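Researcher: Can you fold this with calcium ion in place?
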Amino acid sequence: MPLSAVVLAAGQGKRMNSKRHKVVHPVCGKPMILYTMELLDKLSAGRTIAVIGHEADQVREVVGSRAEFVMQEEQLGTGHAVMQTEPLVGGEDGTALVLYADMPLLLESTVRRLLEIHHETGAAATVLSAVVDQPRGYGRIVRDAEGRLAAIVEEKDCNDEQRSIREINTGISCFDIRKLFAALKRVTNHNAQGEYYLTDVVGILREDGERVEVVTADDPAEAAGVNDRIGLSEAEAIMRRRINRQLMEAGVTLIDPEATYIEAGVKIGRDTVIWPGCILRGNTVIGEDCEIGPQADITDSVIGRGSKVIRSVLSDVKTEDNASIGPFAYLRPGTKLAEGVKVGDFVEIKNAFIGKGSKVPHLSYVGDAEVGEGVNIGCGVITANYDGVAKHRTTIGDHAFIGSNSNLIAPVSIGKGAYVVAGSTITSDVKDEDLAIARSKQVNKPGYARVLKARILAKNKKSDITERKG
Ligand code: UD1
Ligand code: CA
């Protein structure tokens, strides 16, 4: 049976109180609507149509080529929204699956079960319900004497008895396409909200003697629609637990999963240990046998196997195996560390390559630089890469030694095996194997410390007397 998916995303989502469309808000780093799109990918739906309206451009941009778009200029209800897709799918035989773009927690297995039962029973419509403690705001599933679905009644249209029903409409449903559009044409807006309800299709089909089925979700949390920021945080918490659980099942140790924030796109290898307080975001990939954290904030980075990252911030960084980073390192975009590189405390690196086994152990800034293998960069070394107008590069050859507190004024190049003496300010290139010293000569004056102190004391006394006089 050909499957066409219709994703409703035209509504305003007023309760988010946001400049951004509700469905582009991220849950664990991924825009909400992409969870729906990825689910549909797995179901290999023949066609996916997103109904958009409010902030349509934002939704279009996020969804991209994953769907075709239909504009619903005026949001006159969910039934009206589905009606807009008639020119695209109305003429086809097959099944239409209707989803809302604000249900990121929905599981593929549940939708599969919904479709299976729909096809097995040959129903005209099959609706996904859930039994919840707090049915407020949802449409209620009203069953007849035989326990079959009779109608879905929106809360605002419920009588007291109906309002007490705890089985609700999740909003996910599937239909025989021809019967859906035939019934939609008969839906009116004579209800409390003056809207064309998709849910009225169920009652219409029943009246026509068509078979209508209900499938109940195992876990009501799955069916939660995000309506406001509170719902967003709740969805985030559930998604976070799911992600963490999958990682632990795949062989990653999370010392304290409740204090570990890992976004949906992150991949982590086996036997890696994640200490509490870590935030791993974007397209980060961490190899096997790493030790990450406590408190590592890593975005869009690739960390080689056997590496350590302690209390550091990394963004768009790539390391080969056995890197050692932190505590308190700040590695900015374009940082590339070869195998076994050590970056220690209070070091900032940006747009720089550090060669195999090199060390930047403490208090350095390395920016726009190319550093060879086995280089030692002493404490407090700075690449002065910016002259106030443009950025310039520094190159340091293999096995060079850069003494503590040196300034390398770029553009400058230090040769292989060269030695820069501590405290130097290097303004011109140093050749291979050369030693550079660039600091003023030290002068020692024997016994002069006492003379100086006496002079200072005398001066202070004098100004003391003048002050008292004045
Ligand atoms: C809807 C259901 C209700 C169900 C609840 C589950 C109807 C009439 N009611 O109610 O039974 O319990 O979802 O969350 O279907 N949308 C459009 N165009 C419109 C109206 C809505 O695209 O004209 C989209 C919204 O962007 C949203 C979805 O449809 O993604 C649901 O709309 P919403 O207004 O939130 O429906 P509810 O009142 O929550
Ligand atoms: Ca809703």
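Model: Folded with calcium ion in place. The longest helix spans residues 448-469.
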